[in-house]
Amino acid sequence: GLSQYSSDPRTEWDLSAYSTRDQVLEAMRNLRYKGGNTFTGLALTHVLEQNLKPEAGARLEAEKLVILLTDGKSQDDANLAAQTLKNLGIEIFAIGVKNADEAELKQVASEPLELTVYNVLDFPLLSSLVGRLTRVLCTRIKEKSNKENAGSTVKDIPVNTGPQLSPTDLKISAVTSKSMHLAWSPPLRRPKKYRIVYYPSKGGISKEVVLDGAVSSLQLSNLTSHTEYLVSVFPIYDAVVGDGLRGVTSTLPLSSPRSLRVSELSHNSMRLSWKAAQGATQYLVLCSAAPDGAED
Question: Hey, where are the domains in the chain?
């Protein structure tokens, strides 16, 4: 299976989509590159929520491996999402290219790091990793399978994530130029915490808030005016992340002063007056002589 991400992760194909090597290679040749930001935490959560579920082709008895390929430092918290996957027995391999942050790769990847972390200077050099990575992946699968057969427990991703583990009905209200209010219906089983991630849809720094699982609303403030925001709410349990809620809302534009009037004109002065702009703390007034022939 393959997912591609920038600010919003996108599933290219599920685990059950292709059954032969040639089909996968053909799909790779037709893949269109997705440019944009680097929200690795959101991408890893997408893999857990969407790609490693039985309905996407994941078999409960099969070993779960995630290979992360990135060329930049994550703009959100990749470590929290990675830790959730690792707690579920999912092995993460991290491959960095060009500007990837090696410290972050080591934080995200599973142990032992000498087998799961790779870093190359440019994309063509990725081909040099293929042979070694293939051998390591196959060996790790065999090792994990042998341990399971010997009686050790391997955690599976719970199948029942619907209303039992996932919140519903995200409502965004009281939207102003700088704030908005979020509220949602909690899942039947109370989560340990909620992770709320929000960021401008056209690119910008991702911010997140972690709430106690007993809380089901949040006021977002210090937002940018006249901007579309993507909002995600993830319930976090001891060993799983439930399905996330997502919403999109634009903040209001800043209010403008209106009804500009000119009075008390003299040879070197004039009085200006206007209707106040709500929330304005200062005004900047610019004045210049009209060019010859233009209306005064």
Answer: 2-149, 168-251
Rounded Cα–Cα distance for residues 139 and 65 (Å) = 12
Banded pLDDT at 7 (limits 50, 70, 90): confident
Question: For residues 234 and 195, is the Cβ–Cβ distance under 8 A?
Answer: yes
28 and 17 Cβ atoms separated by less than 8 Å:
no
Superfamily classification of domain 168-251:
Immunoglobulins (2.60.40.10)
- Residue 172 confidence (pLDDT): 93
Positive or negative torsion for Cα 257, 260, 262, 263? negative
pLDDT of 154 over the 60 cut:
no
Q: Which residue has the tokens 């959100």?
A: 76
Helices (H) and strands (E) in the chain, counts: 6, 14
Strand partners, 212: 193
Identity of the amino acid at 118: Y
Q: Does domain 2-149 have CATH number 2.70.50.60?
A: no
What is the per-residue pLDDT across 89-143, written as a single tens digit (0 to 9) for each?
A: 899 999 999 888 899 999 999 988 888 999 998 888 888 888 888 888 888 887 7
- What pLDDT was estimated at residue 141? 82
Q: Cα(272)–Cα(270) distance, rounded to whole angstroms?
A: 7
202-218: per-residue pLDDT in tens?
766 778 899 999 999 99
Output the average pLDDT for the chain: 86
List strand residue ranges (DSSP E) for 45-153, in order.
Answer: 65-70, 91-97, 117-120
CA distance 47 to 5: 10
Q: Which amino acid is at 263?
A: S
- Equal CATH topology for 2-149 and 168-251: no
Scored b (16 or more CB within 10 A) or e, 212-240 reads ebeebebebeebeeebebbbbbbbbbeeb
In 3D space, the residue among 196, 176, 186 whose CA is nearest the CA of residue 249 turns out to be 176
